[in-house]
Each structure stands twice: as structure tokens, then as C-alpha cells.
Amino acid sequence: MRQRRRRGGRVMVPVASMGDIAFLLIIFFMICGEFVRDRNPPVPLPLDPYVEELEDAGAIFVTIDGEGRIFLQSERVEDIGALEHALAALLDQDASGSRIVTFKCHRDATADVYEPVVRAIAAAGGRMAALGDLGDEP
Amino acid sequence: MNEVRRQRRRMRKKAGGQIPTDSFSDIAFLLIIFFILTVVLTRSTGFLTEMPAGSTDPQMQTDKTPTVNLLADAIRFNDEPTTFADLVASLAAMELPSRPEGERVILVETAAAVPYRTYFRVLSAISVHGGVVALVEDAE
């Protein structure tokens, strides 16, 4: 039996399963990811061989940048006393009850800059989760 | 006329109660783009430490409380010069996790010029070996 050849045959790409693939990718990202909560400026972190993955880094972020500026939840804080009061208020409002304050500091900042901040976190009753990168200092 | 009526009836039968699903994949891809932009796959690394709040009572700072003094270019443990590796070995030898909570305190005194990377390493070593970090208050 002769089969007719279609003139100007078009190649059809089956797209029926594209929706299924897309929903599978969505489920993957929903399960594996977490939303970005830290809006403070990024700083180079110290290297340490003993750091571990933090399961819950908390929702309160304090950052000290390379110029010694202190940021709490992406807003600049000028005074250590104000930082302590603000931290105490945020920790009281923390629904999870973990009282974790995530602390990021520029690796070259000096003690006269970071130690008052660490004391403020302790005085406010927070538990400090200090962030660092896995590695060893040269 | 009858032919027209028959055609209309056929079209009505064909078009009965179908939900158009052509745009489902467009909606799905928009959601994917949203999650790609807002989600972070990497996790934070660091250490978690508890620090006693309030000022240090001088009477609590007994001769037996281990003290780490951080200077700009040196580390001292219980007033003896040491290296970071030796400090870690000393902390491991103390077997802090097996001690009661009150005996796990390690005092840390830091000079003004000590960089944060040194301070971080020392605090991390103390926390990993089961110690509780207490900061020495400056004398007023």
C-alpha cells in the first residue's frame, strides 16, 4: 500500500508533560530551599576547621562590616546601648523561643569593635550563633 | 436549516464543561522562577554558644577558672604562653563535657587589637570542646 508523504511536514514537540516537569521542579525547590532572611551586607567571614552546619541560624541578624559599622536586621545601629535594648525586644518577641542571635563580623575587625557587640548579645539574653566558613587560617 | 441546527448541536456537545489547561505550564514556570530567586540552597556554618549574661563577679573568678588571654600577636592560657594547637589540646584534655555546668566556664579576655578571626577560632574551639564562654569585664 503506498503511503502518502505529507508535504511541508511539521515536527511537533510534545509539550503535554511540561506542566508535570515544572511542578516537580517547584516541589524540589520548596523542599530543599529556605528563604533568604539575612538582609545585612555580606562580609568576609573567618575560617575555622571546627565550624558545623547550623540547623537553625535564627531570625535575628547582627553584622559588623569592614568599617566597623553595626547592622541589626539590615538597619544601622550607632549605639551599643540601643543595640542591647533592640535585641532584648526582638528576643522577647521571638516566637520560636530559641533566643538565637546570628552574628556575622568582618574577619579583620578588632576587639574594640566586636567585643561590645558580643557583650550586648549576652546582656540581652541571647544565644550567639557566630557564622564562619569551614577552612583553616594560613 | 436543519443542517445548521445539527452542526450547532454538535458544537455544543463538544464544548461541554472542559477546563482550559493550556496556561498551567506557564503558571508553573512563573512559580519556579519565583522560588529560584527567593530560595537559598546553601546553609550557614558556624557555632552556637551560650554566654552568661551580666557582669562577672570577681569572687567567681577563682584561681581555678581557666582563663584565655588573647593579645594582638599571642595567646596565653592560664597565664602561660601557648599556641592555638596547644590550646585546643589543653581544652580536649580537660574533658569539659563530663564536668558539671559550673565547672565548664572558660574566661576569655581580649586585648583591643585582637582581630576577629583569632577571637572566633578561640571561641569556636572552646564551644566545640564543651566549654561555656564567659567574657572578662573591663575594670572601671
Describe the structure.
The complex is a heterodimer of chains A (138) and B (140). Chain A has helices at residues 18-32, 80-93, 111-123, and strands spanning 34-35, 47-48, 52-53, 60-64, 70-72, 75-77, 100-105, 127-131, 133-134. By secondary structure, chain A is of the alpha/beta class. In chain A, the strands form 2 sheets. Chain A has a 5-stranded mixed β-sheet, with helices on one face. The longest helix of chain A is centred in the first third of the chain and has 15 residues, at 18-32. Chain B has a 5-stranded mixed β-sheet with strand order 5-4-3-6-7. In chain B, a hairpin with a 4-residue loop joins strand 3 and strand 4 (75-77). The longest helix of chain B is centred in the N-terminal third of the chain and has 15 residues, at 24-38. The mean pLDDT of chain B is 81. The interface between A and B is large, with 52 and 43 residues. Strand 1 (34-35) of chain A pairs antiparallel with strand 1 (39-40) of chain B.
